[in-house]
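Incident log, structure service

09:12 report received: a user says their structure output differs between two submissions of the same chain.
09:20 pulled the input from the user's history:
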Amino acid sequence: MAAAAVEEIRATSYVGFDSITQQIEHKLLKRGFQFNVIVVGQTGLGKSTLINTVFASHLIDSKGRLESNEPVRQTTEIQAVSHVIVENGVKLRLNIVDTPGYGDQVNNENCWDPIVKYIKDQHSAYLRKELTAMRDRYILDTRIHCCLYFISPTGHSLRAIDVIVMKKLSEVVNVVPVIAKADSLTLEERVAFKQKIRAELVYHNIRLYPFDTDENDEEEIQLNESIRNVIPFAVVGSERSVIIDGKSVRGRKNRWGVVNVEDENHCEFMHLRNFLTRTHLQDLIETTAQIHYEAFRSKQLLALKEGVQQRPPTNQ
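09:34 re-ran on a clean worker, output below:
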């Protein structure tokens, strides 16, 4: 039975419930926000540097081999680092999960399994806490909200392993592909490479974030479409400052000139940062809860229900 339409009434004098948004904001500011991101890609693509550049802080160290006698990792490892970043009174608890060793072996078969397992384990841990009789008022959220997938700047096409892994990951997490070290490509090569990648994503039916929903208004739909037209983000990361026209900017200097990380004519770092922090941060968190976690939760509870029904009755 459809719900009857409710008439909208205008209050004849000021009541004050419009202040609820400020009340919510006050509580959220006291509690702070949690954002969990996982970075996936081969060693040497600048994953740590890009994360440090996005959040304008030195958050993680490079996991690459710096000495010739260092052993090559034989498996994909999972390493999580947590920080609290404060900006204008807003606290962001940032959890960064690195995956050193991914794709570095001669045989990379199933090298994505530890990553997928880790993401599912966070969903499972949250579900267990949610189903506890005496659960916490605020459950610590370690569910992965975003996966930055780093693509090597070959200029040709996606590797077979990239296609497989992005397809696997897109089923459990919001995947955002980025072309690493994009300054190694010319502008023409970059445009052609991005077009090839987008065509391959469509061909292999890999559905990446952002997603449109019935709740989105026209402005949000247009914003998401503009993001999809940019993906994959061709980025350059740098924690070093260089001087350009007397101004200190983050960039990379070589014998041919300077790559200004924050110049949209040089790379798409600004598009990525604005997307991650200024326009889609909350939506990444909500999409994780409402789509990926909800799908996992439904599957687990249905399996639990079927297991109970199939259990043989006990003799009284």
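09:41 both user submissions now match this output. Likely a transient worker issue. Closing.
09:42 reviewer note: The longest helix spans residues 281-310. Residues 130 and 139 are 8 Å apart (CA to CA).
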